[in-house]
Amino acid sequence: METGEILHALAEVTHPAREDRSIIDLGMVEDIVLEDGKIIVTLGFTGRQDPLKDYLAGAAKAAILRHDPSADVEVRTVVNEAPQKKQDIRDLTLDQLSEVRHIIGVASGKGGVGKSTVAVNLAIALARLGYRVGLADADVYGPSVPMMTGTEGQVPASEEADGMELIVPLEKYGVKWMSIGYFARPGQALIWRGPMACNALKQMILQVKWGPLDFLLVDMPPGTGDIHISLVQEVPMEGAVIVTTPQAVALADVEKGIDMFRNKNIDRPVFGIVENMAWFTPEEHPSEKYYIFGRDGGAAMAERFDVPLLGQIPLVQSIRESGDAGEPIALSSRPDAEAFLALAGTLAKILG
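Above: the chain's sequence. Below: its structure in token form.
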């Protein structure tokens, strides 16, 4: 066999973990030597030991023998330990969001209103309605998605595409999840300066292999500030949902959140308000409602700011317990789960 024939045979060998691209396309064939009637092929592997190294060597030898059963073939492998070029955050583009239809921020003017609980359950409810959904946990100071989804301790895989290392999101409950919490040790305090936090957020969204999605929810940090402005400017966020509690004291915080999105430098629509902890319902008496934080505060806020009231979520002990157990309440058929399904249906209808 001549070198051209050998290359033709090796082009039939594909790498299963690299989107079935051939070892020729991947540049893994480093050398072909014809010596005293013997064919010596050298395959190169970079960065780290490839678990499929022996498989690919055997497949390369088999491919050549299919073309010339009488050939004397030896396939050698080498691991090149040359340092890889460090990923530059400035190289990130919007390519991984090209197949995402709607990017929606889930925000709150202050902490403690259950924003992450709403975001996680809304994502699952949208998935239950048949939509393709992802959630990026952008709350870099207190990432709670791993605990709420029962994915603590898991580390997302990574893969290379066109010279760019991409993070593969975890999938559970029909939703793709990504959080900075997957890359921190349990109990580790995340202490970020502003620019570091902004860069981490960009990676959690722009360096993730999301694939086709109908909705990508971004669980934003509570409050307003430079991180929020940077996030909205760097990510093509279509608009936001504001989560609040019904008491009057929360009105000022809702106003801050809405003003931020309506600021001329951001200019994103607020699709509506979600009133969380709208009333308390005892587990033993599901038909009873106690308005311990005030009644219809969310409706009053929505009217004042001329935005829809998207939904009212009751304060029920099972919502907290389900989140702590890593099995969000939206997975169930309980009345409190129905509230999240209704919220998801209303938001989907608004966005079309």
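The radius of gyration is 26 Å.
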